[in-house]
Amino acid sequence: MKLEFDIASGDFSKAGRASSRIKKMLKQLQVDPKVIKRIVVAIYEAEVNVVAHSVGGKMLAEIDGTGITVIVQDNGPGIEDIEKAMQEGYSTASKAVRNMGFGAGMGLPNINRNTDEFTIESELGVGTVLTFRNNF
Hints:
Blueprint: E1 2-7, H1 17-28, H2 33-53, E2 57-63, E3 67-75, H3 82-85, H4 95-99, H5 107-113, E4 117-123, E5 127-135
Antiparallel strand pairs: 1-2, 2-3, 3-5, 4-5
Helix pairs in contact: 1-2, 2-5
């Protein structure tokens, strides 16, 4: 099963739609609730990162008999220092984003912590691609 979601820049009211829809599907497939929680955390963090840091992007999710693979691709400034961005608390979020309660610098670390496989590729001025997988 393949799903695709558009993620709009700056629209925090819509962040979480993909994770909510995928959560419902995984419940219907009777996936272990602990696994669902990990998946939903990773997907939500990825959605918020696209909303906060890019000019929009897409999320593709593929559910097969053994797990879920998610690819999140954004159009944005790219990540200058991936190693730094992976550190808890490091954030490049704007003051406006922080004032809304986002941008604490936990997004990428939380994605990494809640997935079985995680890769990140980024090119300055082009954007970022996250690929992660959780096994059932």
